[in-house]
Every structure is written in C-alpha cells, then in structure tokens.
Amino acid sequence: MRFRAKIVDLACLNHFSRVIITIAKLAKICTLRLTVSKLYFILSDKVANGGVSMWCELCQGNFFDEFQMEGVAAEHNEIYLELVPENLSRALKTAQNAKAVKIKLTNKHCPCLRVAVELPSLSSSSRMVTHDIPVGVIPRRLWNDFREPSVPDFDVSIYLPVLKTMKSVVERMKNLSNSIVIEANSSGEMNLKIETDLVSVTTHFKDLGNPPWASEDGCQSSAQSRDLESMAEARIDIKKLQQLLGGQQVNPTKALCNIVSKRIVHFILLHEDVSLQYFIPALA
Amino acid sequence: MPLTAQPPASGEPYVLAASLDNARHLSSILRAVHFQDHATCFATASGLRVTVEDAKCIQANAFIQAEIFQEFAVQEESVTFRINLSVLLDCLTIFGSSSLPGTSTALRMCYRGYSYPLMLFLEEGGVVTVCKINTQEPDELLDFDFCSTKVVNKVILQSEGLREAFAELDMTSDVLQITMSPNKPYFRLSTFGNAGSAHLDYPRDSDLMEAFHCNQTQTNRYKISLLKPSTKALALSCKVSIRTDAQGFLSLQYMIRNEDGQICFVEYYCCPDEDVTEAEL
C-alpha cells in the first residue's frame, strides 16, 4: 500500500483546502477512499451520525500535480482510510502561501498521512512544516460498507434556491426550532417551514426549476406521473441542514435536492471539480 | 390556503397594519433595546413604542414614529401586546442581518387584536417569508415619571466620545458612578473594579459636549450590568442626552439616524443603586 501526492499550484491548493474545510464541517470522522483517478470522502449512515450520509468525489487530476497510489492488492487497487477531516483541514491552513504540499501515507509507529508543507522563506532553503495525521486503515472485508449510495426513488427533484438566501433563512430558523420541513413540488416551488408554540415561519421560493432526470427504462418515473403542484415534504433536523449550507465555501455550479416524502432528503452540490451528495433522513 | 401572502384589503379588521420598505429601519432600533426576551409593543397613530424592562429598575424604550413607515394605520386609540423580542428580531432579519447596499427586505406587519398573533410578511428578491408570532397579555410597565421640569442635571454629548468608554467599561465593577456638577470634574464616569478605580472626565468646554446644564453636584451609582445593554443604543446613535432628577434616576436618550437619515429615539431609564447608597450611610 503506497500513496504519495503533491500539489504545487496555489489555486489548486486553496480549492482543495476549501473542500476539506467543507468536509470537516459535515463529518467528525469519515472515510477517505483513494483510487487511481479519484478521491472520495465518505460518511455512511450509521446511527451515530444521526443517519446522515455523505459522498464527496474529486478527480485527483484537477488538484494534484503528482499522484501515485498503489492499493492493497493488484485486483483491489484502492486504499480506504479512516480519518478526522478537521486534522487535515488544520494542516492545510498552514499551507496558504505554500510553494508545495506533499501528502504521503506512512507507517512509522502507526499509519499516518504525512502532510509536508514547503513554505517560502527569505533564505535560500525553504521552511518545512510537517503534520502527521493519524489514520486508520480500513480492511478489505469492510469495504462494502462504503459503497456509493444510489439516487433514491424520489417524489420531487428541485434545484435549490440561491444558497446564500437559503443559508440566512435556515440560520434564523435554527434559533426558533429544532426541526424544519422542506417541501417542494414539480412546478419549481419550495417552502421551508418551522412551527413551534411561539411562532411559525414559512419561506416561499418560486421559479426554482426542476432538474430533468432521464428515466432509465423509458417508463414514467414516479416523479413524472405525480401531479405537478402537489408537494413532497420531509421534516429534518435543522442543525444538519445548517451544517450542509454553512460549509459551502464556494457557490456550486448546480445545487439540487431530491425529496422522498417523509423519508429522506438527498442533496447534490456540484462544483467544477467536486461533487458532494448529502443525505438527511426525515425525523420520525 | 387559509393564510395568503397578501393581507386583506383595507376595511378588514386589522387593528394595526404597517408597511416598511426597509425592515432594517425597525430591526436595528429594536436591537438597541434587546436585553430581555420579552417586550411590550404600544402602537398609536403617532407610531410604535417598544419597551423592555429588567429587575424593576431599568427600562428601555424604542420609538419608531409613524413617518418612518410607508403605511401606519391604527384602528383603535392604542394597541398594546407583549411579544417575544428575540423571536421578532429573528423574523425581521430572516434574510440575514448584513446590510448589503441596494438590497433591502420589505415588511408588512398586521395585528388583528387581543389574542391574535402578530403577522409579518417579509420580501426580498422575490422570496416571501410569512411569520406568525404569538402575542401575550401586556405587562404592567414601570412609570419613571421623568419629566423635564424635574431634571436637575443634563448634558448632551456626541456619541462618538462615549462609545469607546462604554465598550471598555470595567465589568468587574458592580456599579457605574456618574458625577455631574457645575464645577470640576463637570461630567465624570467612574468604575471600581478588581484592578482599581477608573475615572473618565469630560470637561464642559469639550468639543464633544453639545450642551451642559448642570445646576447641582450629584453623584449617583447604577448597577453596571443593567446599563451595559445601553451600549448597543449608544453604538447606533449620533448624540446622547444624559439627565438625572432629584432622586438620582437616570435618563439616557439616544438620537439615532437610520440609513435614510430619518431620526428615531431610544431611551433608557435606570434607578440608582440603592444597596450602595445604604452602605454609604
């Protein structure tokens, strides 16, 4: 098992750092899956997470100038590591003006990701700052726990409103209630609602648009056959929604959610180089 | 749908109906008196007064005159209700509290009367938020009976001179002592904290002193924890008038100019700290 990678381009480095900051806001511990072409940050829906799950995918070529990976075995050319993304985020904070950042999997006393940051200095030799981030190696037999989640059979799929507005509204609603209802229909309308003994607040978004999902076998999907105006809704933990919205460092090129009434809300945020899927289950 | 985004046409039984193009004109003033969760709202044809009290010794009033609103209609002589001010502020700032130039939240506020909730309709950039906030029986409010004929000492200061002083008040001191006198030190703020006592003097001929009418030397102490929230009003204001009466009751009146240059007032009334007075005897 070997892994070494290097980022030299400052823009790529900053972009990578922002992705890690976002991941760190969404998961205390997660799984990093390395393949020849991609990196994945995965959180599977254990009860300990409150049922949320996350799947974040990056093409290594868009971030790293050098990337060498040798998996556990030839026919399973992948590496699965358990790590605390906040540790990686903190290490990358020191790299804001770095000349280069190298990441390497080491096993001196225990498995670690060694992040070596080369910083500019006034003298001819650079300053090096090295962080050793402890990781857990996930054995092959557990890899099935971390499979890509499938798109649920949703009732409504809708583009999200301007994230900045949605974030402000959810932040305020979080002061007023622990849970929030997201409802949307296939006519591009979405409502965010909270209701308590003290107050009820509903924010109405219109003209959001509904993404066109090609149905796989040509027959009507449940989304298409449903009446355009009728709302699908789910009540979810407002903190989890705020964590998702709060972690967004850059405006995604596409942001949408799929709602399975009373079951789950599936968020998809697409940036040029990164795709993030986040599942928040409905509250009982 | 039982609750429409558009309120009924005029003639419908709203005892209070108001419209405001920029909800910040209301939310920023209300923040200046937000030191307790609950507030009493009092509306008359002249405008809206929002009162917050604590410990039966401090009262803050925010006045937003009818002219600030684009529409302000009160169907009865006066309309009074108690409301959760934290919730009201969260609703008024639902689209965020940062003041980006060019964007503002439009507000419509409607109240049907006793036992009905306060309805807020807020709109920004085509997005509409509807809030329904429960109201309660209004509390009995303190009457400080502070009128201009009973004023013993009065100064008017430019707020910028006091802002730093108030922001840096030694909070380890139990009290803020205010000395006003026709003689030196004229106007003095004092604290007595763990590190020692601190005195800040403003001479009567200071540039910051807009008016000075002190007839008698008075030294009064007020619980610093009660006065600290007034810093919010001070931060927003351009001028503050500080007055005391014969009993040592304090009136702080803040003149606040909003984004459009319109003027609103916030006043704080505070009782002198009786514990200290007794200890001194």
Automatic annotation (TrEMBL), chain A:
It comes from the Eukaryota. One of its GO terms (cellular component) is site of double-strand break. The keyword DNA damage applies. InterPro entries: DNA_clamp_sf, HUS1, HUS1/Mec3. Keywords: Cytoplasm, DNA damage, Nucleus. GO terms for biological process: double-strand break repair via homologous recombination; meiotic DNA integrity checkpoint signaling; mitotic DNA replication checkpoint signaling; mitotic intra-S DNA damage checkpoint signaling; nucleotide-excision repair; response to radiation; telomere maintenance. Transmembrane segments: none annotated. It is found in: Cytoplasm, Cytosol; Nucleus. Component of the toroidal 9-1-1 (RAD9-RAD1-HUS1) complex, composed of RAD9A, RAD1 and HUS1. The 9-1-1 complex associates with LIG1, POLB, FEN1, RAD17, HDAC1, RPA1 and RPA2. The 9-1-1 complex associates with the RAD17-RFC complex. HUS1 interacts with POLB, HDAC1, FEN1, PCNA and RAD9B. HUS1 does not interact with RAD17. Interacts with DNAJC7. Component of the 9-1-1 cell-cycle checkpoint response complex that plays a major role in DNA repair. The 9-1-1 complex is recruited to DNA lesion upon damage by the RAD17-replication factor C (RFC) clamp loader complex. Acts then as a sliding clamp platform on DNA for several proteins involved in long-patch base excision repair (LP-BER). Belongs to the HUS1 family. This is Checkpoint protein HUS1.
From TrEMBL, chain B:
Its main location: nucleus. Keywords: DNA damage, DNA repair, Nucleus. GO terms for cellular component: checkpoint clamp complex. It comes from Pandion haliaetus (Osprey). This is Cell cycle checkpoint protein RAD1. It comes from the Eukaryota. Pfam families: Rad1. One of its GO terms (biological process) is DNA repair. It is found in: Nucleus. Transmembrane segments: none annotated.
